[in-house]
Amino acid sequence: MKASFAAADRSRIEKVIREKYAEAARSPEGLFHYPVGRAGLEALTYDHEMIQRVPDSVLASYCGVGNPFSLGPLRPGEKVLDIGCGGGVDTFVAAFLLGPTGQAVGIDATPEMLERARQNQLKVPLARVAFLPASAEDLPFRDQSFHVVISNGVFNLIPDKASALTEVLRVLKPEGRFMIADQVLTGEMPENSAARVARWAG
Amino acid sequence: MEKVGFVDVELVGETGLDSSPVTRGTLFRAGKGITSRTKIIGDPVMADGDDTTAMPGEAARRFSDGPPT
Which domain, by its residues, includes B6? Predict the structure, then answer.
């Protein structure tokens, strides 16, 4: 299960992803094969009332591929980690659901996305939300820190998925829940290596 | 996920948002058992309500200081 990449391949994958998501941090419109922003949230049947609590300029940064909150409840007071938080929309939704005693932490490896999340945070009146730079393959948290880990359209981009999953397991509390929306491969990837890398980035 | 130790791994369904002709948007959920084979290398878990996350810099201060006024 361990990913086996030449260093050059890994570097190329990370560079393409970084460039794509740096651009998506400005606006994801036109960069994906599916609806983004408010249209994406509505297509995925996010709670309408929850969406209404977030400004359109914040919702515009959403580029998730599923609704991880459809997989189970978040309970008031819990601690939630959002891996690959992007502009932070799912992190904000989690924080709303957790209430004033919960904590929601979003991490992202793309600096431009983190900056977008922090700018978005200025528009959303929520305490107990933090955004940090981090890779899913090396989470900067103590063991058993979170009740729930969510992720939306990110694990397919991670070169070493086994390491990232092991990290998720490590930071979850006993009986913690992992709720993930993501892309899975159902056909053949292109033979051409450049096309494979581009396809990797989605 | 099961290979690294998750339990109750479940493919719940498709989301309808696909990033390419050869990929499908999907929803999975999985759990961590009461006892995990993951080796515990950090500090003992603190009681709920305490900050168990190690967060550097501004974010850590924001959490430890509580909500802004």
Answer: 1-31
pTM value > 0.90: no
- For A50, counting Cβ atoms within 10 Å of its Cβ (0-12 exposed, 13-18 middle, 19+ buried), the class is middle
Chain B interface, best mutation among A182, A191, A196, A200, by max B CB count within 10 A: A182
Residue B11 lies in a domain: yes
CA A46 to chain CA centroid, nearest Å:
16
Q: How many domains does chain A have?
A: 1
Mutate to test the interface with A, among B11, B28, B63, B64 (most CBs of A within 10 A): B28
**Looking at the domain assignment, is residue B18 inside a domain?**
yes
Domain total of chain B? 1
A95-149 tens-digit pLDDT: 999 999 999 999 999 999 999 999 999 999 898 999 999 999 999 999 999 999 9
| Residue B64: CA count within 13 A, CB half-sphere | 10
